[in-house]
Design brief:
The protein has 218 residues and is α/β, with parallel strands linked by helices. It is built from 10 helices and 8 strands.
């Protein structure tokens, strides 16, 4: 490997999994069920990557704590059990993870998903075996707090400069930047590349195959 990284830490939604449409639709349906304004797709998707409670509070600052809890419950029910909106891994995701594992990288996930949601999708996708550790806000803190990254580094006994964060949102970039961890931006997800570049990523990619080539360059 041309770089000195020992670990690659991935965001999930919008980075490895193309789940934006399902998330947005679930947010909209949950809002309608709870009597809150139904926001458009662009507004709704901006919070992808945050913990659920924090995401709802950011979308609906006027909501009372009881409304946030009600909407979180409605969202979870629809997203996990009722949604007919399909989601699938981005093209090249499996090949990327397999090749990185074979090359000796330690792999991790740092996501805003719930632990239950992440476990289910890791099981269904078959990607769970690739990762040495995963972190969600349930056992950590919501992005952009860098606690997830600190926990992963402690697990691996690595320093921040020995790992790289890969993500598609400013939340991913910010939490890595806060602890001086190198970061790589993907433009195929939620936030516009211009916003991601404000956090000085080492590089940006529009496809996972390009990321794979960069990480495995001789």
């Amino acid at each position: 490997m041309a770089n000195n990284f020992k670990a690659v830490i991935f965001d999930w939604d919008g980075t490895l999994m193309n789940s934006e449409a399902r998330i947005v639709r679930s947010i909209q349906i949950a809002a309608k069920q709870c009597g809150l304004p139904v926001l458009d797709r662009h507004q709704s998707k901006q919070i992808i990557g945050l913990s659920l409670d924090r995401a709802i509070s950011q979308l609906y600052p006027q909501a009372k704590p009881s409304q946030v809890a009600q909407m979180a419950k409605a969202y979870t029910q629809h997203f996990l059990y009722e949604s007919e909106v399909e989601m699938e891994a981005y093209e090249g995701a499996k090949e990327l993870l397999s090749s990185l594992k074979e090359a000796g990288y330690l792999l991790a996930v740092a996501t805003g998903k719930s632990r239950k949601g992440l476990n289910e999708v890791l099981d269904k996708s078959g990607f769970g075996a690739f990762f040495d550790i995963t972190r969600t806000p349930v056992e950590s803190a919501s992005k952009p707090d860098p606690l997830m990254l600190k926990q992963i580094l402690a697990h691996f006994s690595l320093t921040a400069d020995q790992a790289v964060m890969v993500g598609d949102t400013t939340f991913d970039m910010q939490m890595a930047q806060t602890i001086a961890m190198p970061r790589l931006a993907l433009s195929h997800g939620v936030h516009e590349l211009e916003r991601l570049m404000a956090f000085d990523p080492l590089a940006s990619f529009d496809h996972l195959s390009a990321l794979q080539a960069w990480l495995l360059a001789d």
